[in-house]
Amino acid sequence: MTKCGTVVLAGAPNVGKSSLLNALIGEHLAIVSPKPQSTRRPVVGLLTQDDTQYIFTDSPGLLEPEYLLHESMRRAALAALADADVIAYLHPLPEHPAPPFVQVAGLARTPRASIVTVYTKADLVSPSDRPTARQSDEIAVSAVVGEGLGTLLHVLRAHLPESPFLYDPEEMATQPLRFFAAEFIREAAFELLHEELPYSVGCEIDEFREAHDPVYIRAVVYVERDSQKGIVIGEAGRTIKALGQAARAKIEALLGRRVFLDLHVKLLPKWRRDAAALKRLGYTT
User: Fold this and answer.
1) Which residues contact 66 (CB under 8 A, 6 or more apart)?
2) Is residue 164, in this structure, part of any structural domain at all?
3) Given this model, what pLDDT does residue 211 score?
4) Residue 265 domain boundaries
5) pLDDT at 269
6) Can you tell me the distance from the alpha carbon of 246 to that of 259, in angstroms, rounded to the nearest whole number?
């Protein structure tokens, strides 16, 4: 009998959820940034090995909301936990031991799903300095060097239900390609823009013509204040050109095809605090 189930990667912001998802799937699907809170919506990656299909969900970091976008991110994270068959609770190994998951998540009760504690960033701790007293459902991994990934999959498999596969074994994600195009543009913004500006950036795909060669994508980068437009565009358009080049390379790597990225910058005032704007950008329904 085959096994198939949802594994939610959960934890505080910046514990390595997106890096681990990418390492497990073997493809760059989720935004990776040293800046926390870069994941705003769950990213679902698929891994099918022999008789097991893992449906990995990279959920937003569990945080205390400060504005409407944060509230949307927390709701998405909690909804993912409610749908999980098993929760991979991520915590950096250099900060061992991990506090109780219920405490980190701010939950009133323990989730129904099994919880596996995954200590990330193991490459930052030498084997001689690692804690020895770990439970059987505690695994140390490194997305950077691939340490512990096989062991993690073995432990997670034990918690998955017997079920037919829910997706084609050849698929690696459930979201449409235009979703990832918008995410990669945001990732480029996190790489190229400084301080708080990346958090003020939203992205919307206006057109996605996959039948064209090169693939034509028209996208809009939204900022919250008029003064931010000039920063994103840069002197003589240098910054937006660099952002577009970086994003295009990421999209081409995923598609395996040439891409023409037509990028524009527009003002959407205080969109992180505006319900209509959040719905427009896909953060709420």
Assistant:
1) none
2) no
3) 94
4) 177-280
5) 97
6) 12
pLDDT of residue 133: 56
- For the entire predicted model, the pTM comes to 0.94
As beta bridge partners, residue 45 has 56, 173
Q: What letter represents residue 207's amino acid?
A: E
pLDDT of residue 184: 97
Direct distance between the N- and C-terminal alpha carbons of the chain, in angstroms, rounded to an integer: 37
- Asked whether residue 15 falls in the same domain as residue 139, the answer is yes
Neighbours of 115 (CB within 10 A): 20
Per-residue model confidence (pLDDT) at position 137: 72
- The pLDDT score that the predictor gives to residue 134 is 64
Phi, psi of 83 (to 5 degrees): -95, 0
CATH number of the CATH domain containing 140: 3.40.50.300
Nearest to 30 by CA among 47, 49, 17: 17
Strand order of the β-sheet with 215-223 is 202-209, 215-223, 259-267
DSSP state, residue 108: S
Tokens 């409407």 belong to 68
Residues 131 and 243 in one domain: no
> Shortest CA distance to 155 belongs to which of 93, 103, 87?
87
**Token pair belonging to 204:** 């919307």
Q: Is residue 196 part of a domain?
A: yes
Low-confidence ranges of the chain (pLDDT < 50): none
